[in-house]
Amino acid sequence: MSEARTGERVRETRETRIAVSVNLDGTGEATIATGVGFYDHLLSSLAHHSLIDIEMKAVGDIEIDDHHTVEDVALALGGAISDALGDRTGITRFGAARVPMDESLASCALDLSNRPYAVIDLPFRADRMGELSTQMVEHALYSFAQASGATLHVEGRGRNDHHLAEAAFKALARALRMAVAPDPRRSGVASTKGSLPTDGRGTRASPSGWLSSTMAPATSSVFVTPCGSSGPRSTWPKRPRSLTVPRSSSSPASVPARRPWVASGARGWSSPSSSA
After folding, report:
1. What's the pLDDT band for 162 if we cut at 50, 70, 90?
2. Could you tell me if 168 and 132 are in contact, meaning their C-beta atoms sit under 8 angstroms apart?
3. Is 214 exposed, middle or buried, given 0-12, 13-18 or 19+ CB atoms closer than 10 A?
4. Pairing status of strand 16-23 against strand 53-60
5. Hey, what's the torsion of the CAs at 56, 155, 181, 91, to 10 degrees?
6. Among 155, 185, 229, 252, fewest CB within 10 Å belongs to which?
């Protein structure tokens, strides 16, 4: 892996204009401006603890709400990381981490298999953290998994939403750092299939040097470089609220259950059907 593992993505829709550049072999430097302050904080933490350099600028319709910006930033970031991974030859592929932050604890398990799938269970208590909607943390993680081609499991518990969200992103960062690391004992792809196909989802590769030469400031309403189509928007399955079980002498008629939010990947499968 002597070549630089870098990737750039641009994404432009009627709702957002985004450019992102990553270096998998960086030092965790982050220059991030999404217009959503707490989201910037989470992404900066992701960069720092994964040691992935991230440069990102975004202009979005945050006067409406944060949904489009948060989702599209995650799609662009995941796509840039997928580009940097190339055919994923020689990487460790799997990563996992548990991270505490005061009373909160979050865990992340990650597989860079190019089989996008997400299982997210983060029980936030409030509706917002600063300018960021708490429900958009789950959506950002799903969108990242979709675009990066990752199977992603994130769960946590805590009483403080800020701590829980930050612990989750730090756990993702540590798992990602492990998964993208070169495996010195492996010369090929870490799969019995012999290959892991790669393709971008929702964004397209940007021209070389585009980010530094043509990106307008994040505070500007001007975006100078034309981009491709936005691609299909992600869909969210309905989240079950309770699990009903048969009445018996030892069990109640209905057992409340907070089920993890589960989403299938971009190809629409409901469950993995083959080994990778």
Report:
1. very high
2. no
3. middle
4. antiparallel
5. -110
6. 185
